Amino acid sequence: MEEQQRPVQPAGGGGGCGAPPEEQWRGAVEAALPGTPASAAWPHVASFYAAHRYLPGIDVCERVGDGGEDGGLLLVPGCVRHVASSAAGLWAREELLEAPDHAARRLRYAVVDSNMGFGRYVATLRVLDGGGGCRIAWAFECDAVRGEGWSEAALVARLAASVDGMAERVQQAVAAEAEARAGEEEEEEEEDGVAG
């Protein structure tokens, strides 16, 4: 009787049953915020439940779950948000992987479910000093996206447009805050002048 040979799987191989290893994509995009200090931009980027304010095309961003005692605003590893684009019919659930690192100005999350064809996807957002302002850097690593019209170049282009839109909206928010502070200071000076 002839002995049958079993196929040998390479160490660390892919999805079992002879499946090829998953293609991995990784990259980074960034956008400049001239004249905007990193310390002013960071609170906006770190607002995990406010993606709808800063990302073009996203009109829904809400916490998934009961929200806990803090009303759902505490940012702890494992909390999940639901983001969606009503116009495009796209959605994702994203899990915070670690508490926002305020010293390094870094936020990491993973897509845990979506209707866009994502498997494993991890993103790191950072706000970096530099060039008379700051930059928002968006790095990603993921399995190849299994959806119509997706390629690594298409994902990078989509993220580049998103980070550009985010930078623009964060700059507008920081400018609006500065304008509001200036208005408050002006009112206080006027009140001091009337009282004096």
CATH class: Alpha Beta
Count of helical segments?
3
Rg estimate, integer Å? 22 Å
Percent helix among the residues?
25-40%
CATH H-level superfamily title: START domain
Biased composition (Acidic residues): 184-196
Main location: nucleus
InterPro entries: LFS (IPR053249), Polyketide_cyclase/dehydratase (IPR019587), START-like_dom_sf (IPR023393)
Region (Disordered): 1-23, 176-196
Annotate the secondary structure layout:
Blueprint: E1 24-34, H1 38-45, H2 51-54, E2 60-64, E3 80-85, E4 90-96, E5 106-114, E6 121-129, E7 133-143, H3 152-195
Antiparallel strand pairs: 1-7, 2-3, 3-4, 4-5, 5-6, 6-7
Structure description:
With 196 residues, the chain is of the alpha+beta class. The protein has a single domain, classed as Alpha-D-Glucose-1,6-Bisphosphate, Chain A, domain 4 (2-Layer Sandwich), CATH 3.30.530. It contains three helices and seven strands; from the N terminus they run βααββββββα. A seven-stranded antiparallel sheet has the order 1-7-6-5-4-3-2. A hairpin with a 4-residue loop joins strand 3 and strand 4. It is elongated. It starts with 23 loop residues before the first strand and ends with a helix. It comes from Oryza glumipatula. Its main location: nucleus.
Question: What's a quick, concise take on this entry?
Answer:
Residues 1-23, 176-196 are annotated as: Disordered. The protein has 196 residues and is of the alpha+beta class. It has helices spanning 38-45, 51-54, 152-195; strands at 24-34, 60-64, 80-85, 90-96, 106-114, 121-129, 133-143.
